[in-house]
Amino acid sequence: MKSDSFKKIKKPQSINFALLKHFLLLAVLLIVFVEVIFFIVVGNIIEARAKERLTHVGREVAVFVGGKNEAAISNFIRSFREEGINVYILSTEGKILLPVADDENEDFCDEIDSIKRRLENVGFGGSVIFSDKNNLKYASRFGNNGGTYLFATYSLKIINGAKNVLLVYFVVLGIVVLLVSLLISFGISQKLSSGINNLSATAVRFSKGDYDVKFANSEYQELADLSDTLNSVRDEVKKSDDFKRELLANVSHDLKTPLTMIKAYASMIREISGDNPEKRDKHLQVIIDEADRLTGLVNDVLSVSKVNSHMDEINFKVFNLTEFLYGIINKFEYLQETQGYNLMVDVGASLYTRADEEKIGQVIYNLLGNAVNYTGEDKTVYITLKPNLSGDRIKLTIKDTGRGIAKDELSDIWDRYYRLKETHSRPVKGTGLGLNIVKVILQSHSFDFGVNSEPGKGSEFWVDFPSVPEEIETQ
Ligand code: ADP
Fold first, then answer.
1. What distance in angstroms lies between residue 430's CA and the mean position of ligand 1's atoms?
2. Residue 431 in contact with ligand 1 by CB distance below 6 A
3. Residue 133 CB contacts under 8 Å (≥ 6 apart), including other chains
4. How far is the CA of 339 from the centre of ligand 1 (A)?
């Protein structure tokens, strides 16, 4: 057994779920990515600002102290405390010289060595910025002889506090974005899946034989296209179903008449006319005619279903249309002899065309049969076959002198099983399928055809064949 026959079939997912899942995943990824980037960038900016501020304060203090008394300097220095910056003037041992004693025990004796070391390579007036766990620190040499130090600290708690506020803000924003994307994806998936669910519910009704269903349109192009396609499928199925019904009803009705006749005449021969050769022959002829009618009907039904389902291929070949037409006209000779019909023929010599000979035979036979059936009292049918002036087309016309066809019925006569209401005793039996067979065959050849008719005066059916030179070989 082939390995792919073991392939697992994945359980189908609902569009709602798939859309929601992917939308959320995308939203989360995007939010995390954007927030991490922002947080790093903004965090760095906050830190850089803090360093800038600390340096600025250091320089401001250095400028301020020139010529001021200690109290003024202390006050000035203290004024930065509200923003979290502590500024000190330190002795060379790390004792706090200014601001004057807040707390006498506080000193920076442990820190002073590290400050000195950091300032070793920095010229007078230069400064360093560094940090430990808790503070961002600033230091520079101070005083004319450089024996004291300006030292400032900026609590990292404040900086981190600002970062945390930012983090909370980003998280809240992220949640809001996530909720909004959840709502949007839910809305889209609801709309999409409700469109599909509608179509599928309609399709279920359709599959149960309700041909009046309408596949609803959608605001989404693909679904709208699908609806259009399904609506045309519905129309086609409805048409073919109507046709099947109609055909079945009509055919069974048409089959009944000849069968009743055959049965009645057969019984008559058995019971009455069996010994009378003249009567028996007459009755047998009725049986033969009715059997022919049955055969014709069955053939037409087969033809119409074959040509309409396009199962039949068109076998193009070049043939002599003139001879071919005469061959068909000859089949109608018995009508001339037995029933006084006149077939007036005006046919050009040796006109060749390229078509499916057998199918064109059906076309001509049906048109001729109709002309004979529907012609007027004079029982005359005119047949012409003529090339046009440029010689590239050949026109066949079959004209009768009958009642004609009303304008509003002209387009319907080509439909399957269309018959004008009026009953008519016809020498050539019809099924109402003939003109539809003619139409489908000529359309599949791409030949022009039509009918001109004047009620009360008669109808002229015509077909336009391509004219080809005799020597072209059949392909
Ligand atoms: P049918 O077997 O009934 O003749 P067709 O398909 O050949 O079926 O023709 C369809 C209908 O068109 C006919 O029933 C008839 O009403 C009308 N029709 C066809 N040919 C003619 C004609 N030459 N003159 C008048 N009516 C015609």
1. 8
2. yes
3. 156
4. 20
CB of residue 413 inside a 6 A radius of ligand 1 = yes
Across the range 179-199, mean pLDDT stands at: 86
* Model confidence at 1: pLDDT above 50: no
- Whether ligand 1 lies within 6 angstroms of the CB of 459 is answered as yes
Whose CA is closest to 471, among 350, 387, 359, 356? 350
pTM of the model: 0.52
Verify whether ligand 1 is closer than 6 Å to residue 382 (CB atom).
no
Q: Can you tell me which atom of ligand 1 is nearest the CA of 413?
A: 12
CA-nearest residue for atom 12, ligand 1, is: 413
Instruction: Please name which of 375, 463, 465 lies closest in space to residue 414, comparing C-alpha atoms.
Output: 463
Percent of all residues in the chain with a pLDDT value above 70, rounded to a whole number: 91
pLDDT tens digits, one per residue of 11-62: 787 777 887 888 888 888 988 888 888 778 888 888 899 999 999 999 999 8
With tokens 């699908």, the residue in question is 226
* Tens-digit pLDDT profile for residues 431-444: 677 898 899 899 99
pLDDT of 173 over the 60 cut = yes
Report helix angle 434-445 to 357-374, nearest 10: 140
| CB-facing half-sphere around the CA of 420: CA atoms within 13 A | 18
Ligand 1 centroid vs 369 CA: distance in angstroms? Answer: 9
User: How far, in Å, is the centroid of ligand 1 from the Cα of 413?
Assistant: 6
Pocket flag, ligand 1, residue 400 (CB < 6 Å): yes
What is the per-residue pLDDT across 66-102, written as a single tens digit (0 to 9) for each? 778 888 988 999 999 988 899 999 988 888 888 876 6
Is the CB–ligand 1 distance for residue 94 below 6 Å?
no
Using the atom order of ligand 1, give the atom closest to the CA of residue 458.
24
Does residue 58 contact residue 80 with C-beta atoms inside 8 Å? no
3-state percent breakdown (helix, strand, coil) of the chain, nearest 5: 55, 15, 25
* Averaged pLDDT, 228-243: 88
The CA 211 to ligand 1 mean position distance, Å, reads 30
CA of residue 432 to ligand 1 center, whole Å: 7
Question: Read out DSSP for 301-332?
Answer: HHHHHHHHTT-SPP--EEEEHHHHHHHHHHHT
Whether residue 143 has pLDDT greater than 80: no
332: its two tokens: 């109608």
